[in-house]
Amino acid sequence: MLINRRTFLAATGLLTLAPSVSATQATRLKDVYHEVLLRHTRWAETQYDATAGRYRRTDFGFAVVLGNAVLLTRGGYDAALAGVEEDVLRRNTLATVRHFAASNVLAGGGEWGKTLFWDTTFQSYFVLAARLLWPELDAATRANVEAIARGQADYAVSLGAGNDPRSGGWSPNGLTGGYRGDTKLEEMGVYAQALAPGLAWHGDGPGWREAFGRWSRNEAGLPAADLANPAAVDGVPISANTATNLHDTFIVENHGSFGPHYQEELWRTSGRNAVHFLLAGRPLPEVLTQQPNGELLWRTILATMSDAGEPLMPMVDDREHLYGRDVIPLAFRSTVLRDPMAARAEAALASRLLAYQAHPPVHRLAKFSGEAKYEPEARAELAISYLLHELRPPVEPVPEQEFFARAAITIDHGAEPGLLTQQSAAAWAGTVTKLGFTKLAWQPAHDDWLFKISGTTPMLLPPAAVTGRHTATYRRIRDGFDATASLLRFADGFAGTATLPTGTIVCALPRPGRVDVHNLAMAGMPGLTGSRTYTGAAGSVTVRAREGFRVDELTFPATSARHVRMVGIRPHPTYGYSLFDFEVDGAAGLTASASSSDPGFEPSRAVDGDPATRWAVARSDRGRADSWLAVDLGATTTVRRVRLRWETAAAGAYRIETSADGAVWTAVAEYPRPDLSTAGWLDVDGRAGFVARSADPITVQGDTITVPAGVVEGYVRADLRAIAAQPAPQCPPAVRASTADGFLSLFNLSTEDVTATVRLPGFRLYRGTQVTTADGTEYALGLPAATARVEAPWFTARGVPPGITAVVHDARRVTFRGGPARFTLTHRDGGTLPVVLGRAERTVTMPWAKAYPFDDLALGRLTFPCSVLPPGMSDPAAAVDGSPRTAWTPGRDGRMVVDLGALHAIREVDLKWTDGKPPPHTVTYSVDGRTYGPATTARYVAVSTGWRPGHASLTTISVSGLAAV
C-alpha cells in the first residue's frame, strides 16, 4: 500500500477549504429524494393490512412510516405519484405509529423491540417518524415513544460490553471486536445506534453518553493507528480504543470477504444517529464528525467507487446495486462531514435513482439484492438522506471530470483479504485471490453495469483456489507511475495479471477466460438499452437482452431416435440445473428420467405441459457438471429440434444426445453456439474491448465472452483493430509479455528463475539492458520464478541504428554504447535530447526528470496519527510526501509513526528538518504497532519529539532497508 493520508486527502480535496454550499444542488437532491419517496409509496402501501388497520410487522414493513412522515411534513404531496390520497396515508401512518409504539417491548408490549439486532435499527426509524409527526400524536403514544428511546438506551448501557441475550449469535465480541471473516464494525455501530435516540431526545441518562462514545470510537478500531494517536474525541483519547475491526490496510471483511457495503456502515449508522440530534436541535457528539480512522476507511471506498456513486462489490454478491441503502453514507458525508468527493458520488447515485426505480419490479429501491427487510429500510434511509439535506445543506461536489483522477490509487490489501486493486481515471480493476472468488475484475470507465464481477462470478482468471501469490504495486510518488502486477499459482499452473494507469488490463491466461456482460433494458441508465453490440474482425452481432427465463431452441440434422437427453457441461454456479420444459419436435406424452432430482421437482415435471412446474437436480448434485435429463419418445422418431426452457439454474453449457436404445448415446448439438467468433480483437458495445495475442478466437455467446488462453489485453475505448495489428513481444518458454499502452508487463509462469531475451517491437527503452535491432529491441530479462512486474517506457530512441546497447538506470539516466551513432532520445513525460554516440559509452541525463524508482521505504506510506490530529500537530504525512516544501509540525511533545507496510530489515533512518533548531527526538521501532523500542527489523518507525514552539519542523523521514525474510 503506497499512499499516505496527506497525499490522499489533498488529492480528494479534503485538505482544502470547504467549498461554498450550492443551494441549487441541495434543492435538486432533496427534490429527487422526495419524488423517489412519493413513487415508492405505491410499494409501501402493499405493506398495509386493511384488516388490522396498520402496516405489517413482517420484515419490518411498518418502517415505511418514516418515509410517510417525511412526505406528510415536508415538500408538496402528490397523490398521483404516491398512488394514495394524503389523508389516507396520514390515517394509515398514525394508526401504525400508535399500534407499534404500544406493542414495543420497551413500552410494555410484546410484539417487537429492545432486541439490538435488528429491532433497534427499525426503532431508530420509528422514533424519528414519530418525532416528525409529534404534534399529531396522542399523549399515550408520545409516552410510549419516549419510553422506547429511554428504555433502549438504558438496556444498551446495562449490557456493558457484553452480548445481548435477545440477539442470538449477533455480538460485537465485547470491546475487542474482530476483523477476520466478519468485521464487528457493524455490530459496534448497532450498540451506539441503540443509544442515539435517547441521547438526542432526552439528554444524558446514566452512562448513555459514555457508552455511545465508547462504541462509536471503536467502530473503526485499528490498534496500530489508535495507539499512535493521543488526540481526544469527546474528551477521551483515541489511544484508549481497544477494538480491532479493520485489516491493517483499512479494509473490512463481512460474510468472509471484502464487502464495501459493510465498509460504509460507519457512515450509515452515523447518518441514522446524526439525524436525531439535528432534528432535536442538539449538538452532534464530536465522534460523529471526528471519526477515528474514518478518512482512511473512506479512501478504500473511493478505491472501489463506480460511476454510479456506489462502491463495486467484487466478492459479496447480495449487496450489489443496492442504491436505496447506499445513499445514506454519502448523504452523511456530504452534509455532516462536508466532503466534496462524497457529494459528487451522492449526486451520481441520485441521478440514477429514478431510472433504477422505474425498472421492474417498478417502484422498488432494493430490487436486485438483499433481504426482504431491505425494502422498508431503503425507504427509511432515503427519508433520512432527505432530512440530512434539509438540516445540513451539502458541500459543493468536486467536478465530475475530476472525481476519478482524485480517487486514483493502487493498494495491495494482502493475501488474507485477497485483493490487489487499482482505481485510475479511466477504469477500476482488481485481482481477487480470496478463496471462492478468484478473478480479474475490471470495470472500464467505472461502469458497474457493463461487466458482471460480484460474488463468485468468474472473470478472466481460472475460478480456482490460489495456492501462491506474488504481487507488486507501483505508485507515482515512488515509481513514477501507477500500476499493479501479480503472478498467481494454482494447483495446475499459473496466471498473471497487470493493471495500468491508462485503465488497460493485461492477463496471462493458462486456459480460456470468461467475461459475463450485463444486458438489460433500464431506460435512463447509461448503456442499458436492452442489447449489446459486439464487433470484431469477423463482423458484428447485436445480442438482445433476455426477458424472463432463458429459452434455448437447438436444431440439428434429422436423426432417428427414441431417446433424447440433455447432458450438462457447466452448471449454474450456485443452483446446478433446473428445467421448466423439455420439448422434442413438439412430441407429447413423453416420459422422463434424470441423474437425480429434488423432492417435488421430479423429471416428469419438465414434460407435464405445466409451465409452472420444473425438474431440478438434487441439492447434493448442484455442483455436479454432468447431471442429465432424458426423455423417452415411446417409439423411434425422426427428430430435428429441441426446446429447453430453463429456470434460474440454467446451464452455462450442455450437449444434446440421442439414442435408439437408451444405452448408446450420440451427441447431436451443443450449447453454447457462438453468436460471434472473431480472431484478434473484440469491441464490446463501443465501451471497452479485448485484444487476444493468440491464434484462437474470441467468442461471444449470449451475454458471455470467452477469450483464449495466452496474453489478453483489455482496453477502455481504443482502436482495437490497430492495436491487434501491432506485433507482440517474442518470449522464451514460460514467459509472457505485453507492451499494451507502451508499458512492459512481464510474467514468469514457471517455478524456475528465467534469464533470457525478450524481443520487443518499437524503440521504447525500459529499465534494464536492451540492444536495438532493425525493428525493435532485445530486452535482457531477469525474472524470478512465479513473479510478475511492470516497467514504464521511460525513453524512446528515434533514428537509432541496430546494435546499440541501452542501459536504463532510472527514469532520469541512460547509458549507451556501441556507436558511433546519432539519434534522438525522448522522455516519456516530454523533453527531447539529441544523442551523439562515439565509440566510447555515453551516459545521458534528463536534468529535469526525477530518478524513479526511489528506494525510500517511507515514501508515500501511511502515517499516524490519522483522521483526528492532536491540537497543534499538523499532518505527519507531510514528512513522507516527497515534497521539500511541506513539513510536519509535531505540536507539544508530538510523535508520529510511519507504517512501512511490511517487515523490513532497517539499515538507516534519516531525518531532515526545516531551518532552525531541531527538537529533542528519538526514533523507535515496532513489529506490531503496539510495542516500540530499539530494533533492526520493524514494520513501524516512530519519531518522538520534545517539540516546543520555535523548534524546527520535520521535512522528511527516509528509511532504507530490505524486505525481511
UniProtKB/TrEMBL annotation:
It holds the Pfam family F5_F8_type_C. InterPro entries: FA58C, Galactose-bd-like_sf, TAT_signal. This is F5/8 type C domain-containing protein. Residues 572-670 form the F5/8 type C domain. Keywords: Signal. It comes from Lentzea xinjiangensis. The lineage of its organism: Bacteria, Bacillati, Actinomycetota, Actinomycetes, Pseudonocardiales. Residues 1-23 form the signal peptide.
